[in-house]
Design goal:
alpha/beta; five-stranded antiparallel sheet
């Protein structure tokens, strides 16, 4: 038996006037996904436990089969794991965005999707600056993909690390256009240090040659960093030991690669997988086909619908969903015909166009099993799964349910 879980990140939405009261999932042409729905089971699930922010970190940890309440320590540590960054128990690992600041507001949370090459130069400049200015500087910047980076701060004790890990930081994509100072009103000495680092970084970045060139080209400068999503290194149970199956992950996002690393899943890098609209959908589909030849379980994640939701671009979201159907779901399901297999498709969380950020609402879920007759589900969208029979349960139970119940 083969198992494949498709994760169109943030694809669930609210009805839009521009789409005559329908959602992007409803208007997108998705014949392959709808075929799974019409021959499978439909329902809803929720991947974000009560008390947790509806981030992709928490939500996807659930989809991977791990209860965030037991294992989640922060977003930064997961991304650091995917990058091979070694950390100690006294280290606090932050997600670090390169952002565009203007008049102390969040002008652009991704600095115009700065390139990885440009951002790496800026991260190196920050490391050089802080190391030269402070002999005892305990932090280090690690360049990632585009605007997504890591900052590791080494505390003097595990107690200090746990206190810093509990700092109330805010995802930059949740405060677009808002005042930054209001979200860094912290009293603790370590917290104040983090705030000072963010603002002092501006001294390095604002006049850097990389940003001068970006401004000259009409692009947003990466003139500040924003620290958030921090935590200490997590410990996830081995996936194969937990479920008795081999598994692989395909994604263009470090966060999900990190979950895969800590779960001891094979993380498959796909050329052209960018985590944005320009990701190579076809390559992901083909690599997915190959991965299923020597793995029992494949989790294949596509970030583009989420990015479109944040950018509030209806056409891009619809287009991303249709490309997922055509180049990923269709080819992979076709490659499994004649075999025993199960497939699930679900977003990690909604990213409604009208809001521009994540919500905690339930998400549609479709499960297909090649050896079972489905229910009354009609399509994979917020309305089509309502006639399905899947009982809503905690999202982290999906993996076990897919393997053992359907």
């Amino acid at each position: 038996m083969k198992y494949v879980i498709f994760i169109p990140d943030g694809s669930s939405d609210l009805p839009l006037d521009e789409l005559d009261g329908k959602t992007p999932l409803q208007v997108a042409e998705t014949p392959n996904i709808d075929k799974l729905a019409q021959n499978g089971f439909g329902g809803f699930t929720n991947n974000v436990p009560d008390g947790y922010t509806p981030g992709s970190d928490v939500a996807n940890m659930s989809i991977f089969g791990y209860n965030p309440a037991d294992y989640y320590t922060g977003r930064g540590p997961l991304e650091a794991g995917s990058m091979g960054i070694e950390t100690k128990p006294t280290d606090v690992i932050f997600r670090c965005n390169t952002i565009t600041e203007k008049d102390d507001t969040m002008e652009d949370f991704n600095a115009g999707h700065i390139t990885s090459e440009e951002a790496a130069v800026l991260m190196d400049a920050l490391n050089e600056y802080f190391k030269e200015k402070y002999d005892d500087f305990k932090g280090k910047f690690y360049p990632g993909i585009s605007y997504r980076h890591i900052f590791v701060y080494s505390c003097d004790s595990e107690e200090d690390a746990n206190l810093l890990a509990d700092l109330n930081t805010v995802p930059p994509h949740d405060i677009a256009g808002e005042n930054l100072t209001e979200y860094t009103i912290w009293d603790d000495d370590l917290a104040v240090k983090m705030r000072d680092i963010m603002y002092e970084a501006q001294e390095v970045l604002k006049d850097h040659e990389v940003n001068k060139a970006r401004i000259a080209d009409g692009k947003c400068p990466a003139n500040m960093v924003w620290l958030w999503g921090q935590g200490t290194t997590p410990k996830l149970p081995d996936f194969k030991e937990t479920y008795g199956l081999t598994g692989a992950v395909i994604t263009g996002v470090d966060l999900l690669k990190g979950i895969g690393v800590f779960a001891n899943l094979d993380v498959i890098d796909v050329p052209g997988a960018t985590g944005f609209f320009d990701t190579d959908y076809e390559a992901k589909g083909q690599y997915g086909i190959e991965a299923l030849k020597n793995h029992d379980v494949l989790l294949i994640h596509i970030e583009a619908p989420d990015e479109a939701g944040h950018a509030q671009l209806i056409d891009e979201k619809v287009k991303a969903i249709e490309r997922i159907d055509e180049f990923i779901v269709g080819p992979i399901i076709e490659s499994l015909e004649g075999e025993d297999f199960k497939a699930a498709i679900l977003p990690d969380h909604p990213t409604p166009i009208s809001i521009g950020t994540h919500t905690r609402d339930d998400v549609p879920l479709v499960i297909y099993s090649s050896d079972k007759t489905g229910d009354e589900c009609t399509s994979f969208d917020e309305e089509g799964v309502k006639t399905g029979s899947i009982e809503k349960q905690d999202g982290y139970k999906l993996m076990s349910r897919l393997i053992n119940e359907f």
